[in-house]
Amino acid sequence: MSKRIEVRRKGNEFCAIEVRLNNGRLSICGSAGHIAKGRTSRYDEVYKKVGSEVYILTSCGQIREELTEFFPDYAKFFDWHLNDLHAECIHQEEERGDTWTNNPGSICCECGYKLGSAWTSRELPEYVVAWAQTVGSAE
∠47-3-122 over CA atoms, to 5°? Predict the structure, then answer.
């Protein structure tokens, strides 16, 4: 498994992207917040300290809006997040646009897969794997 992290800041705000690649599964998560000088409250969730700066966490997880704002050059990879958790088969996704929301339980006329009956996976293209292995720094 590889885990890579990159942190970017804008003024007194920060966003960190965490990219994990494990056996062909891609996970992209974020941590975002503000940067304080020295003092913090006992209620603050500290992400990290760098000198006198304290990175205070205000949101984390699949925070796509913040990730897109701080990492617009990485947005094209976000659709591959959790590539092994698709409710639809490839035919339902590409040809018919079936999702659990618009057509729950539909049966694929090509392969017979019942939408939502199991998780299906999409193999990561080489360019996505290469990006996941080189983004930020290894941890």
Answer: 125
Q: What tens digit of pLDDT does each residue of 58-110 get?
A: 999 999 999 999 999 999 999 999 999 999 999 998 888 888 888 888 999 99
**Side-chain half-sphere exposure of 66, counting CA atoms within 13 A:** 24
The domain spans of the chain are: 2-83+124-138, 86-120
**Quick count: other Cβ atoms within 10 Å of Cβ 122?**
17
Q: Please state, in angstroms and as integers, the Cα–Cα distance from residue 60 to each residue in 66, 116, 131, following that order.
A: 9, 28, 22
Say if pTM beats, i.e. exceeds, 0.70: yes
Q: Could you tell me if 138 and 4 are in contact, meaning their C-beta atoms sit under 8 angstroms apart?
A: yes
